[in-house]
What we know:
The protein is mainly alpha-helical. The protein is 97% helix and 0% strand. The radius of gyration is 60 Å and the shape is rod-shaped.
Amino acid sequence: xxxxxxxxxxxxxxxxxxxxxxxxxxxxxxxxxxxxxxxxxxxxxxxxxxxxxxxxxxxxxxxxxxxxxxxxxxxxxxxxxxxxxxxxxxxxxxxxxxxxxxxxxxxxxxxxxxxxxxxxxxxxxxxxxxxxxxxxxxxxxxxxxxxxxxx
Length: 151
């Protein structure tokens, strides 16, 4: 073999070595890129799962909120109805009490009038001659009765 063929063989060997090294680096880069891609895909899948889970939580919370709001609306309506009935009953009771007070006031007025008339009649009776004469005549009888009661 000649020097030239040795040089050519050395060049080819050097070129093959360089290409083999470059191929190894490219394969390592490719393997690293594939691992990174798999990692990114896993992150995307995890993010998607998290987003789906959060959407489900939001849906559940929205349902609970709507259910609770409906429950509160129903309780408010029931309380308002109860308050209306309670208020109506109180107003009816107040009307009955006012009616009873008016009746009692009318009876008191009638009794006061009757009482006044009786007092006037009693005063007139006591001022009459017959009453005074009967009182004078009955005085000794009253004294005797009092003495008999004490003794």
